[in-house]
Amino acid sequence: MTARVTNRPAGKLRIISLGGVDEIGKNMTVFEYEDDIIVVDCGSIFPKEDMLGIDLVIPDVSYLVGKKKNVRGYLLTHGHEDHIGATPYILRQVPAPLYGTKLTLALVDLKLKEHRISGIPMQVVQPRDEVQLGKFTCKFIHVSHSIAEACAIAITCPAGTVVVSGDFKIDYTPIDGQVTDLQSLAELGEKGVMCLLCESTNVERAGHTISERKIGQTFDNVFRDAEGRVIVAMFASNIHRMQMVIDNAINYGRRVCFIGRSMVNVSRVAMQIGELRIPPECLIEMDDLDQYPDQEILVMTTGSQGEPMAGLTRMAYSEHRKLQIRQSDTVVISATPIPGNEKFISRVINQLYRCGAQVVYEAMAEVHVSGHAKQEELKLMHALVKPQYFIPVHGEYRMLWQHAVLAESMGMDSRNIIIPEIGQVIEMNGSTLSLGEQVPTGGVLVDGLGVGDVGNVVLRDRKHLSQDGLIIVVMAIDRDECKLVSGPDIISRGFIYVRENEDIIESTREVVRSILAQNSLAGENWPELKNRIKDDLHRYIFEKIKRNPMILPIILDV
Length: 558
Prior knowledge:
The chain has 558 residues and is of the alpha/beta class.
């Protein structure tokens, strides 16, 4: 499952994953042939727990910045955040035209407007459309997923044809009636596919992913039995499920209210382009909820992953400005926890029960189906495409490994399979498959309006502050007289409660006084003096109470 490292040969296609391998999210893959570069997807990922204060993580595109004049365009498979979330940040650095389906580009356009980015060309494509970008011919192929208008992409250059599956499943009865275009995939397989890049999210699960229609009966039962308001938390991007829930609600005489920034924005965009259909008289604003009986209300909201600032979480903890949970409410959480979010969702569910609500979630009923292919669907993809080489993508390392094993079980030579690493160049043509150099890559942290200005040092300080707190030592020194004028004053934040620990504060002050008495107070000596205060206080406090706060000495010149 590995290949030997060689120098870059001429006439080879270079494939570089800048994200989306050994992780779920941040999908971004570079395809380079001679002087032409195209990029498939431009996604973000949720920050890890130790990334305190970080909003999201995006791919490092240093490699593309150095070759921005060669980038012909971005091809977007669908509109989920892990595939489009980084677009406003990346396009500032490497602007190029965008290609995608109508809904996908509408969601991207919303992001670009929020970030006040203009002048980026966008071309809406239909399934089976082809676009020519330099030496690349790119064909979009419809696939079923948990968002409308998802596509796989067939990329052809002089070296051969590569199929990128995108996120997909084989749903024979999708809500919109548009099944995965197996015919186009089979035709590509008959013509000859050099390489398949296929998603691996559900490779550990046997069988087939059930159809989205299967959960329709669950929602019908919910609306039939609910005596008060029905509140449904789900991913805003799942337009088909949103439509199914809304249709059920309208059948039972309910009106629809959207709550949560992404839910409001996505639903508005989907209605504008005709992907979401709601009779105007059935749509109400959040401020008008109290004008209707509870049994006539459906609330669609964000927070299916237990996000602290999302709509459902704020409702559960009575922090929402317009809506709090009541005992008569029925709350449906229509999602599966993203790995790492399980405890956040559990907390919200527990709080909903404390409020007296009826809660319906995946462990109790079929309220969610995956948008990702399980083993039998992945086997069908391999059987139709019949690739010469295989690169598993979109999954943690164990998933990529299992997908490689699945490909071998279908007869593929292990020497033709590469499990990719982020930033590793993979080079190929019809006769050879090899590894090239490693390009700069990683995750860039986004914190508010700052992009990449928070690094390991800042995160380490944040973690230190969150665990041990802060002590600020303030003193005023007359530079000319070289004497202490006032202080030292001790300020504690997140370390101890000062009023209940006056003895520790006073002893800490005495340690500082002793240091000042033993050292010169001349201005040129202050940096050394600050370091001495920090070192001695660290040692004293740890010996005293076994804690290690951050210590910040401040000297005022008077």
